What we know:
This protein has eight helices and four strands. By secondary structure, it is of the alpha+beta class.
Amino acid sequence: MKLLASLTSPYARKIRVVLMEKRIEVDLVEENVWAADTKVGLHNPLTKVPVLVLDDGTSLYDSRVIAEFLDGISPVTRLISEGGRDRAMVKRLEALGDGITDAGIAIFLERKRDANQQGTDWITRQMGKVESGIAAVARELGDRKFCQGENMNLGDISVACGLLWLEFRMPEIKWRETYPNLRSWVERLEARTSFTETKPPGA
Ligand SMILES: N[C@@H](CCC(=O)N[C@@H](CS)C(=O)NCC(=O)O)C(=O)O
């Protein structure tokens, strides 16, 4: 299997963390989706990373589909609870993490436009999602070690990859200072090899 990814993508990082936690080996193929000659569109009509290309050539996207697939092919370190409400809660937290990331990326891309073309209302709207999303995670975490239950799950990974990307690209959002419980939690995750090995270059 090969994973098409960029080293700075928070969604690709989520998958790289999952791969390491589950001890699944794949070939990492670095791709710049913004380059004119990117080959990502051959595997994902949306031209987005990450994409997991299976040995028979089938491609899987997006990161939620890939994460679910990977968790299912190996029993090592289960990251999504089995069935029912627990499973839905893990997937909900994953969606919240991805949603915070989506809003952060929307702001990041908007700010790259010429200053007179930037939509300030749009940025404010997306920033509201980032802030209320982070507040919801902090509430959900409370004083526990991980967001749900005793072990790290896919939801923790999704949120952590999103918040660490925010810190890398938008350091003015000082979520570690605002929420000391998130700081303790993220430091616990950052100490894992899966996080140290997938830190974006320059972060
Ligand atoms: N929902 C997707 C989001 C993937 C995504 O937006 N990836 C970014 C890189 S961080 C990308 O490839 N963007 C290229 C584009 O939007 O054209 C996932 O979870 O995989």
